[in-house]
Design goal:
Layout: H1 3-31, H2 37-60, H3 67-95, H4 100-123
Length: 126
């Protein structure tokens, strides 16, 4: 298996773990705590982001880049994903009226592609 194939498979597995945290927080905050979907998905994004950093650093990219450098780079990439998540949730759910979980599924696909390549070549790349 090529290095890229292994990374894509590992990234997908990490993504599932991060998505469980993200969607779990999103749905819990909306359904149980009465939050609006946009702030709830941003809290979920942060929770999933913590899982994503730890697992992608060790499993997907096997990076030895120091935390001081990889951490801020990861945060910058995540910040773009955070902004995309916010803006797209406002558009897809708030403006277009899509159910919030469907909107989040669409957003996740877009942010996933952005994040994989940004982390591969910038956050954790050598």
């Amino acid at each position: 298996m090529s290095g890229l194939s292994r990374q894509v498979i590992a990234f997908a597995g990490v993504g599932v773990a991060a998505a469980i945290v993200h969607y779990g927080l999103l749905i819990m905050l909306v359904e149980r705590a009465g939050w609006r979907p946009t702030p709830a998905t941003l809290i979920g994004y942060l929770g999933g982001g913590i899982v994503s950093y730890v697992l992608n650093r060790t499993l997907t990219y096997r990076s030895n880049r120091p935390h001081e450098e990889a951490g801020w780079r990861f945060a910058a990439v995540a910040g773009v994903g955070f902004a995309l998540t916010y803006g797209l949730m406002e558009v897809l759910h708030g403006w277009a009226g899509l159910p919030y979980v469907l909107a989040q599924v669409l957003i996740t696909g877009l942010v996933l592609v952005w994040s994989f390549f940004a982390h591969k070549f910038w956050s954790f790349g050598s």
